[in-house]
Amino acid sequence: MKFYISTTGIKRVTISTTNSSAKGSTVATRRITRRTFLPVVLLLSIVLPFLFVRIAFLVLESASACNSALDCIGWRLLGGSEASLLREELTRALMEAKEGHGTNDGDYRREGSTESFNVLVNEMTSNQQDIKTFAFRTKAMLSMMELKVQSAREQESVNWHLASHGVPKSLHCLCLKLAEEYAVNAMARSHLPPPEYVSRLTDPSFHHVVLLTDNVLAASVVISSTVQHSANPEKLVFHVVTDKKTYIPMNAWFAINPIKSAAVEVKGLHQYDWSHEVNVHVKEMLEIHRLILSHYNDNLRNANFQHDGVNRRSLEALTPSCLSLLNHLRIYIPELFPDLNKIVFLDEDVVVQHDMSSLWELDLNKKVVGAVVDSWCGDNCCPGKKYKDYLNFSYPIISSNFDHDRCVWLYGVNVFDLEAWRRVKITTNYHKWLKHNLNFGMELWQPGVHPPALLAFEGQVHPIDPSWHVGGLGYRPPQAHDIKMLSDAMVLHFSGPAKPWLDVGFPELRSLWNRHVNFSDKFIRKCRFLG
């Protein structure tokens, strides 16, 4: 055996033997195998347990998401993403929850939904439930939240309508102050109009305006805004009809705040001497309307606000116009003014912004009423809604006589030919429809003044220019693009619960009404009206 070492460094070691070469090769090979075996064993002892645990985890996790565990494992091992698989599994569970497959959805609804997402997550993690259960529980929770939001909106609508019934303290205060003034001030007790204007009350050459209201302040705004914008205020004659309790403060207001040039007549219902036949018909009409209101109020009390499909028609029974005696009496205008042939009718919640003289010169083409049908909002936009929104077309007596998709005409600013009214017997036709509604269980139309009027005046409406009437300002606040439209309108109508004199009125619109309130009056100041 020879051993060589170089003097310049150990660069090479040579071991040689005189024994056979076969034997030396066998020994060297054995030594190489023994050296590499131990690291390989150590590596496998580390990798194999980890690989086993990983495969087992994938099998358990993917049991409900894949057609087979081997598919999922293969997909993962070949480069699949755990996030992608989770996304697919969650998507599948959510689609099943949306479509309502299985009985889990109903079970979760019966058990009740979780109040918050955090509680839901805690329940899911603590109970170790699968992702499908999570999807169904989430759906149940969101569904319950939607029902609660819907219920809150419905209750808000009810409260909003109820708030419109209240008489503000300021308005009640004004009536009391004016009643006191009537008792102590002879001028406040003056008969209206003054003697020099009495002849104008039945003169057809004057412009007659009819207003039925028990709101002193609203009446003053209507009259003052009309006179302010009139080209010929001396031709105006206002006929204010009110109830017995409001007659004294109404008379006192216009007696101590006379309107220059124009004539104002204030008359209470107790001062009319109607025939027995008219009195019977009026009582009959009011009784039928009372039954209709009672029917829809019962529906409203029984409404379940926890579910969709609440009978929204019942809310109409809460609008002030449905409860107003004077509103219902507008169908008796020819009896209220037997000596007049043509009048302009204004609601108490309007503001006049331009001269109205042309309305008295309007040719109605032998029709009874001139009214806005289409509107400023565009072709067929129907600002006052369509017939189907007021009438019940499930009854043949309605569906066979009216077009459900036609726009209704609007109350609030109307020209009435009273002579034609009497000739075609509009009031008689109105009573006929009231009896039909009573016979059909009071389901032919929504409660209110407008629906039966649509039926009674059918075929007797002459459309007027849409700019004469911009309504619905008590239902919605104006948008930015509506500002020019409001300024151009002849008459603004605050139809809806949010009247400008109420706290629920829209602040952005109240200024359009307040500009015609006489805030310098001592009674207005004492009663602290909203400025």
UniProtKB/TrEMBL annotation:
Q: How does it sit in the membrane?
A: Single-pass type II membrane protein
Q: Which is an annotated GO molecular function term of this record?
A: polygalacturonate 4-alpha-galacturonosyltransferase activity
Pathway note: Glycan metabolism; pectin biosynthesis
Q: What is this protein called?
A: Hexosyltransferase
- The answer to whether the entry has keyword Cell cycle is no
Q: Which UniProt keywords apply?
A: Cell wall biogenesis/degradation, Glycosyltransferase, Golgi apparatus, Membrane, Transferase, Transmembrane, Transmembrane helix
Q: Which GO terms describe its biological process?
A: cell wall organization; pectin biosynthetic process
Q: Name one GO cellular component term.
A: Golgi membrane
Matching entries from Pfam families are given as: Glyco_transf_8
Cellular localisation: Golgi apparatus membrane
Principal localization reads Golgi
What InterPro entries does this protein map onto? GAUT (IPR029993), Glyco_trans_8 (IPR002495), Nucleotide-diphossugar_trans (IPR029044)
Q: Which residues cross the membrane?
A: 37-60
Domain of life of the organism encoding this protein:
Eukaryota
Q: Which family does it belong to?
A: Belongs to the glycosyltransferase 8 family.
What is the E.C. number? 2.4.1.-
Keyword Secreted among record annotations? no
